[in-house]
Design a protein that fits this description.
Largest interface: A-B, 92 and 101 residues
Helix content of chain B: 40-55%
CATH architecture of the largest domain in chain A: Beta Barrel
CATH topology of the largest domain in chain A: Maltoporin, Chain A
Number of strands of chain A: 52
Structural class of chain B: mainly alpha
Strand content of chain B: under 5%
Number of strands of chain B: 4
Shape of chain B: globular
Strand content of chain A: over 45%
Distance between the termini of chain A: 32 Å
Number of helices of chain A: 8
Helix content of chain A: under 10%
Strand order of the largest sheet of chain B: 1-3
Structural class of chain A: mainly beta
Oligomer: heterodimer
Radius of gyration of chain B: 25 Å
Number of domains of chain B: 1
Largest sheet of chain B: 2 strands, antiparallel
Number of helices of chain B: 19
């Protein structure tokens, strides 16, 4: 959704208000005042919000005389009787009022959706959207998702074409963000996050779930996604997976504002994982394994119901902002409790933010400083394994097992522990503090107009701890040694980015140009260390006293460091306001590569053509209100491969992995396996796009076609055996492309005073294919990948030339029948046996099409907003079903186990992990977010908004598991999805 | 204003342009690592340990191999034991991990993860050895600044590493036959050597280091000496007909004679060779060391002790805290003993109580099918428990004098010169007298046949990871010889001759397209 129309966003309007106040004052002082017959006065206000509008201009039609409104929106002006007032404000429709005999004229102005060209944030600066040539999508605060938002990524899910944000179902968890398809095999492929110009590094975020949790979502003013290479190339070696620019809110001059936002939430988990109920289990046992029947217990326990619960949560946010025309400030304090639907799991965040901006030296120097601190506490918990398979005929508690916490247990070697015992006795917490300080300074050199020096500097400290405790009353198998683990993590990232920009307009040739050149340095260090061990002598201290560990092991101190430095430049040229050129280049160096491949060059060039500015296109102006053609090309890199991958290093073993010579035990040295010639992954993107506006920009949109080719893809694969000191090395082996078409539409259905209705729709089609794989000849089946549970060492996906990334690779069930063992697969190559050669590609986890639909409606004081999201053409491998959906699991390993209900359909008696039965269409349509709100603005001192939101109201899908949206497409019954109901209030004083 | 501009320029100038050359804080490059003999010894230790342990963190956590994702599976000796035992008439393994049953039934493919462990472990041992030899050249030692007095010791390590590499190549020749012969670290995809080239390489290496290694039992415990070289030579030559189609029984006898006259003695207590204090047994020629506290792994002898403890057996009886209900005896193997109670031949240690000799359910751990064979235990010869109930102290006997005796007899029977039938009979009867406690089990010269040797090797060396090699040498592994579940049926059936060697893993065929798969796969 490339937003071209104006918004009612406060910061934007506020800036203009201030500006208009000055311009108006100037006009007032300098203009000649004509004959004055009498005074009219009045108040100018926003037609929509009723708020007064300082700085609005009132002039008499046909004259230069006029005035501007004061800070309360009031004006007074001398006029003649036949005067006509023109009342205007940037971004609003100008109104004409005939004075007649009125002496008090109050006017309310309506927003002009056609007028404004929005200013968008791009790397190292801003641009007017009309001048943008790259694929840049901005979502402003007004359009953010609403409700219980724990981290910034949740704000824009479903809002931008081609940007797939798979939210985590865990409280405070980390999402999977994919922009225009996967561009990396197994090197990191998450987009680069830039906060107010500072590139974030989230490594070393030990003990926490999501590195973005430190930013209070309500402090965010806008999020901008740089989708193509021409926009993102200025971020060079880290931009291949796209770039997300986060702009935070600043204070506004004027009366200080205090606001409070708070909500209460209630989450109901979705737990239809498909395991047999106790009574069904008994029936199946009676039918399929009658010899086991006497071994069953007498209880009826639905284990998952003992572990999962509906739960409430809450959030409180107070912000205070204001300022003068020289300085503004913004302060916020936030406390959020995100309780998990798995008992004991939660995420609790406390965030404080201060941002101060000040202008000095005749406003030539602008300095903005921000300090964000967050304390994030996580309690980890999950549903897995035994929660589903534990014998449903056994009780939770057993009074005979006092030594084991009173829980019923199998007490057998490889048997799982009682899941309720695991839930209640095994504790795993993390705590992370983050302190982010950033400085942005801009100095406009007074005697060279257009030249500015900029500095971005930041220090970002993360430290955290992780603690685990299992008492000796916890019996797992036959072992009850207890366990304590204490880990300490710390990391820091420093950024320093000086750059120069120069803007100039050459009127003679109707050309505007802007040049930017800069240097960038980033350093990240992270380390973790700790101790762990078992054989506890007592449980009384919990994790607080590691001295009770009988068998103590130190963690190896794991310290990694990396540095990046770069020089970059960009030139923007706008000729006659219709021919646009943007070209950038970045020369990036990273410590992650050997000296031969340490530096990379990432160029880009893009052209734009604003067709309506051409005389010979004037016939189009009847239809179009905006039409811009864009063509861009550029190269991006990916260096998220881990540190020190180019040179062999020798690491020592721990004390329990030593080897004995004589009577001495020697710690062992092992070299790391490396490819000394490892180099960047490079993504080359070509993009052709069209921005358009119809119906006076009531309907705006963008249409893009892209082709992204990634070469030198890195993967950790087996080198030829006998050559390297490791069986796997990370090396450049493949090429892949992503091609796609994206459409974003925004339509203002109504914009009447009482009734506003905006809808936006986005659709993205993407096709991905591996085109080269330096593994095997033409007849090689490809590289297996995608490890699954259910058996050791099994994979379900493959990388293969000519196929999509991570394609599912299985046997095909023979439609002609099933053998006595319950299985029959197609002998694809007709060689008389069923083996690996008969495996076939049957699907892929990435959707063909991603859709998003947002509706925002205001009627009087009521508002209704919703976001629908859909993925089409993606498959999920139901590993929960495949690992447990067979009858012989009922009695296996000497214990009774529940099975997945799919067995009733498949009749599989033995585990069939590689059956195509488990690869399912997982297309879905989800009501992500729906909010009904009421605005109460009758009070002078207070504007109140109350709202109710539902997250995940419904999901339509044919997929058999509880959640069709699985990152990577292998469903292992992760953290349960929940439907969350929220009631909240926003108060603005 | 000037101040601002000056500051800006100074900032840019002074902060820019580092060399971006970072070293990790917890590991070092070779030139910083190998500055004394101790560091080289730690690296040599890694190569020994690469046969037993699975990674740098005991028992698991930082694996050496990434291609198989259960670290416990990746212990070389654990995988080697399975390859030598569960493919044969001695042992059946009921586990259902992908690929296990295919090992029992001779149906493995190039995707089998246990075959992958064997192949990549050997490749790793060979590559680590090659790297060690590259890092320990006289030139490198000098460059790294090693003190003069420590240089000779490092050069001695090189001989041991060459032995470990030769042994890995012997395993590769035996298991895969057609593998690359690589002696340096390289990024060039290697091509396969012929069996003759591999054989010659191993033979030459062993001949060279024979004179360089210490005399038997004069090196530190756990490190190789001449005895290990002779045993490896004997095994290479005994199987030469299988490997290169040329008999080398005379060369075998030459090596065996050196072993027999080196001063090793049979341990009067047969089972003491497999106990937690077996480091004291004078019968054992070379062991991989194991320690419950300092050398933890889910493979090695920890596997050997735990896995054979079946559901009807009591783990504490064997010095450990759990049984893994795994390998068990086949009927064919049990019947190699005329009296299975152990009353006459004490080597028959079968656990029969509550169990059946038949194995109707090949993949049910809890099944009572198959007798237990608790040959390896974590108790000392005096009955004390090992240092840890989970990870065992029992060392892995790689070469044992009894094997040398039987090789002597076989090489003589197969026509080798340098030995005689009378000595052969004496040596075999030495083993039987120990087994029976008296001469009642002795055989006559007429009974000393090759068929007897094959059976006697089973009775003496059962579950010691030599059975597959023996059956192949006697032509009884695939196209002849039948035992339960061979070929996939309970009665058993013969299998294709291609199973005499394992396939090159598909992973390596993909990584190195120049490789040719072994025939039939």
């Amino acid at each position: 959704m490339n937003k071209i129309i104006t918004t009612r966003l406060w910061p934007c309007v506020g800036r203009h208000k201030l500006g208009m106040l000055f311009i108006g004052a100037f006009l007032l002082i300098s203009s000649n005042l004509f004959a004055q017959e009498r005074m009219v006065s009045g108040k100018i206000s926003d037609a929509d919000t009723g708020e007064s509008m300082p700085g609005a201009t009132i002039v008499i039609k046909g004259q230069t005389a006029g005035t501007i409104t004061d800070v309360d929106g009031n004006y007074s002006l001398s006029v003649g009787n036949d005067a006509v007032l023109l009342i205007s404000f940037v971004g609003y429709k100008t109104k004409e009022i005939t004075v007649g005999n009125q002496s008090v004229i109050d006017v309310s102005l309506e927003i002009d959706i056609t007028q404004l060209s929005e200013v968008v944030v791009v790397g190292y600066g801003t641009q007017e959207s009309k001048d943008v040539t790259g694929v840049v999508s901005t979502v402003n605060a007004k359009d953010f998702n609403k409700g219980a938002i724990a981290s910034a990524d949740n704000l824009i899910a479903g809002k931008v074409a081609g940007v797939s944000i798979t939210p985590s179902t865990e409280p405070g968890g980390s999402p999977n963000i994919v922009i225009r398809g996967v561009t990396s095999l197994n090197a990191g492929a998450q987009p680069l996050i830039v906060v107010d110009g500072v590139t974030l590094d989230n490594t070393g975020y030990g003990g926490g779930r999501n590195g973005l949790n430190f930013i209070n979502p309500s402090d965010i003013e806008s999020m901008t996604i740089l989708k193509d290479a021409s926009a993102a190339a200025i971020y060079g070696a880290r931009a291949a997976a796209g770039v997300i620019l986060i702009t935070t809110k600043s204070g506004k001059s004027g009366v200080p504002k205090i606001s409070y936002d708070g909500y209460y939430s209630y989450s109901r988990p979705k737990v239809d994982y498909g395991f047999l109920s106790p009574s069904n289990f008994r029936a199946v046992v009676a039918n399929k394994a009658p010899q086991v029947l006497p071994l069953l217990g007498n209880s009826n326990t639905v284990w998952v119901d003992e572990v999962v619960q509906p739960i409430s949560g809450q959030s409180h946010n107070v912000s205070f902002s204001g300022g003068t025309d020289k300085s503004t400030f913004s302060v916020s304090l936030n406390h959020q409790v995100n309780n998990g639907v798995v008992k004991y799991s939660k995420n609790e965040v406390t965030r404080a933010n201060v941002k101060v901006t000040t202008k000095m030296l005749n406003d030539d120097l602008t300095v903005s400083v921000q300090q964000r601190s967050a304390l994030s506490k996580d309690n980890f918990g999950s549903v897995s394994g035994a929660v589903f398979t534990f014998d449903p005929t056994q009780p939770i508690y057993d009074s005979a097992n006092e030594d084991y916490g009173g829980y019923w247990e199998w007490k057998q070697g490889l048997a799982p522990a009682n899941p309720v015992s695991t839930l209640e006795q095994v504790k795993n917490i993390g705590e992370t503090r983050r302190n982010f300080t950033a400085l942005n300074a801009e100095y406009k050199i007074p005697y060279i107009k257009g030249l500015a020096l900029n500095v971005i500097g930041s220090a970002d400290f993360r430290d955290g701890k992780s603690q685990q405790f299992t008492p000796t009353t916890y019996l797992s198998g036959t072992s009850n040694l207890g366990f304590i683990s204490e880990g300490a993590h710390k990391a820091y990232t420093y950024n320093f980015e000086p750059y120069i920009s120069f803007k100039k307009e050459i009127e003679k040739i109707e050309t505007n140009f802007e040049i930017l050149a800069g240097y960038s340095y980033q350093e990240t260090y992270s380390e973790s260390f700790g101790i762990f061990g078992d054989d506890l002598t007592t449980n009384v201290y919990g994790w607080n006293n590691p001295a009770v560990i009988g068998n103590l092991k130190p963690w190896e101190i794991n310290a990694v460091e990396n540095q990046l430095q770069a020089v970059y430049g960009r030139v923007n040229i706008s000729l006659k306001d219709r021919y646009l050129l943007t070209s950038s280049i970045r020369y990036d160096g990273s410590t992650r590569f050997g000296s031969g491949n340490r530096y990379g060059v990432f160029p880009s060039v893009a052209l734009g053509w604003r067709l309506l500015e051409e005389d010979f296109m004037s016939f189009l102006t009847q239809t179009f209100s905006n039409l811009k053609l864009r063509v861009g090309w550029g190269q991006l890199g990916n260096q998220a491969i881990g540190d020190y991958r180019y040179e062999k290093f020798y690491f020592s073993s721990t004390n329990d992995a030593r080897y004995q010579f004589g009577n001495t035990f020697y710690n062992l040295l092992r070299p790391t396996g490396v490819d000394p010639d490892i180099k960047w992954e490079t993504t080359t993107t070509t993009n052709i796009g069209l921005d358009f506006g119809l119906l006076d920009n009531r309907l705006t949109g963008t249409l893009d076609y892209y082709n992204k080719v990634t070469t030198d893809l890195l993967a950790t694969v087996a080198p030829p055996a006998f050559t390297n000191v490791s069986d796997v090395v990370t090396t450049n082996i493949a090429e892949m492309y992503n091609k796609g078409i994206e459409l974003g539409l925004n339509y203002v259905v109504y914009d009447r005073q009482k009734f506003d209705w905006d809808i936006s729709f986005n659709a993205a089609w993407n096709k991905n294919e591996i085109t080269k794989l330096d593994r095997g000849g033409a007849d090689s089946p490809g590289l297996p990948t995608g490890g699954i549970s259910g058996d050791v060492g099994q994979t379900i996906k493959i990388w293969k030339v000519g196929e999509a990334y991570d394609a599912f690779y299985t046997y095909i069930r023979d439609p002609n029948g099933v053998s006595s063992s319950g299985v029959k697969y197609q002998d694809v190559n007709n060689d008389g046996q069923i083996n690996e050669d008969d495996l076939q590609i049957v699907g892929k986890p990435a959707p063909d099409v991603i859709l998003g639909f947002t509706s925002s409606m205001t009627y009087g004081n009521f508002g209704l907003d919703f976001t629908l999201r859909s993925n089409l053409g993606n498959e999920v491998y139901n590993n929960t079903a495949s690992a447990n959906g067979y009858y012989s699991q009922i009695f296996q390993g000497g214990i009774r186990n529940n099975i997945h209900e799919s067995a009733l359909e498949t009749n599989y008696n033995s585990r069939q992990l590689h059956s195509d039965y488990y690869v399912e269409n997982a297309s879905f349509l989800r009501m992500d977010n729906i909010t009904l709100s009421y605005n109460y603005n009758k009070l002078k001192f207070l504007n109140a908004r109350i709202y109710g939101t539902v997250h995940n109201l419904f999901t339509l899908s044919g997929y058999s598991g509880p959640n069709p949206e699985i990152s990577g497409g292998i469903d292992n019954a992760g953290y349960p999805m929940a439907t969350t109901y929220i009631v909240g209030v926003s108060l603005n004083f | 204003m000037k101040k601002i501009i000056t500051t800006f320029i100074l900032l840019v100038v002074f902060t820019s342009c580092t060399d971006l050359d970072l070293k990790p804080a917890t590991g070092t490059t070779a030139n910083f690592t190998f500055t004394d003999a101790f560091a080289y010894k730690q690296y040599m230790g890694k190569i020994y340990a690469a046969y037993m342990l699975t990674g740098q963190d005991g028992p698991a956590g930082d694996p050496d191999l990434a291609l198989v994702n259960d670290e416990g599976f990746t212990s070389y000796m654990r995988a080697y034991w399975k390859a030598q035992q569960i493919t044969t008439d001695e042992t059946h393994l009921t586990w259902t991990d992908g690929g296990i049953q295919d090992m029992n039934t001779h149906q493995w493919t190039s995707e089998n993860q246990f075959v992958r462990v064997l192949y990549y472990r050997l490749a790793l041992i060979i590559s680590l050895s090659n790297d060690f030899l590259e890092q320990s050249t006289a030139e490198k030692i000098a460059d790294n600044g090693v003190k003069e007095g420590e240089v000779d010791e490092i050069l001695e390590f090189r001989n041991e590493v060459r032995f470990l590499r030769a042994m890995a190549y012997w395993h590769a020749l035996d298991l895969f036959r057609n593998v690359p012969l690589v002696t340096t670290i390289t990024s060039a995809p290697p091509t396969q050597a012929t069996p003759d080239q591999l054989f010659t390489f191993i033979e030459t290496e062993l001949n060279e280091i024979e004179g360089l290694l210490p005399n038997p039992r004069s090196n530190e415990y756990g490190r190789v000496d001449k005895g290990a070289v002779w045993m490896l030579q004997a095994k290479l030559y005994l199987n030469a007909e299988v490997y290169i189609g040329a008999p080398k029984y005379t060369e075998c006898l030459t090596a065996v004679n050196k072993v027999i006259s080196a001063g090793y003695t049979l341990n009067p207590n047969y089972l003491a060779n497999f106990m937690a204090d077996n480091d004291t047994s004078n019968e054992l020629i070379f062991n991989f060391t194991s320690d419950g506290l300092n050398s933890q792994t889910w493979g090695g002898t920890t596997f050997l002790v735990h896995a054979p403890i079946l559901g009807t057996m009591t783990p504490e009886d064997y010095g450990v805290d759990a049984g893994w209900s795994g390998p068990r005896a086949t009927k064919v193997f049990v019947n190699k003993f005329a009296d299975i109670t152990g009353a006459t031949d004490k080597r028959a240690i079968f656990v029969t109580a509550g169990r059946s000799i038949e194995l109707p359910e090949p993949n049910d751990n809890a099944s009572i099918g198959g007798y237990g064979v608790p040959k390896y235990v974590n108790k000392t010869s005096t009955g004390a428990d090992g240092s840890n109930a989970t990870f065992v102290d029992t060392d892995w006997p790689v070469f044992r004098l009894a094997d040398a005796y039987l090789m002597y007899a076989e090489a003589v029977l197969r026509g080798g010169t340098g030995g005689d039938l009378a000595t052969a009979l004496t040596l075999v009867n030495d083993l039987r007298q120990r087994a029976y406690g008296n001469a009642s089990g002795n055989i006559t010269s007429g009974q000393l046949t090759l068929d007897f040797i094959l059976d006697e090797r089973s009775r003496e060396l059962y579950w010691e990871a030599t059975r597959r090699v023996d059956l192949i040498r006697f032509g009884q592994f695939t196209t002849s010889g039948v035992w339960p579940w061979k070929g996939g049926t309970e009665a058993g059936s013969v299998t294709d001759a291609k199973y005499n060697i394992f396939p090159i893993p598909a992973t390596d065929l993909a990584a190195n397209p120049g490789l040719k798969q072994n025939p039939g796969y």
